[in-house]
Queue: 3 jobs
Job 1
Amino acid sequence: MAGTPDGEEGVLAGAVDALFDGARLPSHLEQAIAASIGRQAVFDLMATVGFYSVLGFILMTFDTPIDQDVVDEMAEHPI
């Protein structure tokens, strides 16, 4: 993937992508995260990604409005 960071940050970004794409961590990413920042971090990462996914589902389902400051920032600096 273009623009993927190097090192630990790249492993974490790849893990988040893998969770969204396949709903699981491939063993090589699980092992890399555990070796880099600990076994508990594997669980923490999955729980965090899951929490924010559910939050997104809720916000989108109920058409939660976005603060104007956030809209303006997103217009100035799109992802």
Job 2
Amino acid sequence: MPVLALLSAVLVIGMEQLIQSTYGPTGIVGLLLLTIGIKAKSPAVSSVGAVVLALLLTGPAL
């Protein structure tokens, strides 16, 4: 079980670093809102986080 927790922590930190390097602080805020919304079972907060991330992904295309 501790190996699974360590592996998931490394995965989350790696994902955060990838988003930070690609999308900057706004990407981290979007990911944070999405994560908090899922953990708190709040559809409004997770939706805001998902929209922020979606806008970052489609921003240059618009």
Job 3
Amino acid sequence: MAGAVEAKLAELGLTLPDVVPPLASYQPAVQSGVYVYTSGQLPMVDGKLAVTGKVGAEVTADEAKELAKTCALNALAAVKSVAGDLDRIARVVKVVGFVASASDFTGQPAVINGASELLGAVLGDKGVHARSAVGVAVLPLDAPVEVEVQVELVGT
């Protein structure tokens, strides 16, 4: 039975995806004490990247913002794989977003807003977090964005 967080996802027209399998030697998420840390989540849908390239060149900022939402959904799936239930999230503590950027692109914060806004829409006040948005030269598989999330759990 889905909890309140997954019901909110459904209300927003979203479905929690399967956990994206690791591309190398790591776990999608690990728990340490009351915290869950996700590995960097790419905007994978059904095992594939829908879009590749640099933001500000092959990928628009608006497209990248949507991809950041997908990354956040994948991060929630990774959290659930460790926590068992997204309703255990006490709060999102930190989000780190990486944007593969054309050399003159400076809109990284607006791109990563896609992830932040999704977490806020799904989790309300529990989704408010600290954040970094970083421009990088290239990401794995030529992904335009990558997002990692740290959450605090209740009931541990």
